[in-house]
Amino acid sequence: MITAFDIGGTSIKFGIVDQEGKILFKSSFPSDIHIGGERIIRKIIQQIGLLEKDWQIEGVAVSTAGQIDSHEGMVVHATDNIPNYTGLEIKSMIERETGLPAEVENDVNCTALGEYWKGAARDSNDFLCLTLGTGIGGALFLNGSLYTGDTFGAGEIGHMSLYPGGRPCTCGNSGCYEQYASTSALQRSVDELFKEETDLRHFFEKVRESDIGSLEVFHKWVEDLATGLQSTVHVLNPSLIVVGGGISEQGDLLIQQIIKSVEPKIMPNHRRRLEIVAAEHGNDANLIGAAKHFFDSKHIRK
Ligand SMILES: [Zn+2]
């Protein structure tokens, strides 16, 4: 068994995962990302020491935000959300300090790997995994494996241009897809609608009650989401799109509206067999996917 960590914006989730992808134990601690990349990894190393008292750990799998060189286990590029993260050699740092083999992969890629191994994409060799959150993450699974691109940057669909010259984006451009179709973008419209900070669960209750203002905001947001998917589907012709991120807990309400909005936008041959589904593992997918990446890497290296 190995230990897996998922470094997110607010918390670091971790667990013990076995060879079959079963999570035997899980917990979390605050990530305090402002302390910077190196100190975050130090906290993880400390946690590994504690876990080793109770578990026979054979390796460490890390899922994290940022563009990750998954062979070297280092951060190729990260935004300033986590200070001093770009260039950090996570894999060698963990291996040096713990003596355990370690592997690192991007968090959206881990969601895709987790859903492929044990979840909504288990029967699919060509799919797109979309995670809706602060931004929009994308992972491409082609011919049964992750497509990472030349410099591990493939799948950044959150930065497709949706409204050129529109809202400024963290990437330096403006009008990017994620500025309109991420969960944060929805949250912004919802707060404007209710004129105060509003829990998205409350908003979705209103949508279920067919509150007119809420439905309008919901439909407009899904329409933007679907416009991005329209381009993606035409470029990639996937058989499946898995929608992840916390908001996927809205299940059918969300998925059916996406399907309704996407279908008229795409050509008949592209929608012939296209399925759009919610991710099955929620927050656990990244731990399972990081473990999958770890086991596969070890296998390949032997
Ligand atoms: Zn952008």
From TrEMBL:
Pfam family of the protein (one): ROK
Superkingdom of this protein's organism: Bacteria
InterPro entries for the chain: ATPase_NBD, ROK, ROK_cs
Family statement: Belongs to the ROK (NagC/XylR) family.
Protein name listed in UniProt: ROK family protein
Source species of the chain: Salinicoccus jeotgali
Organism lineage: Bacteria, Bacillati, Bacillota, Bacilli, Bacillales
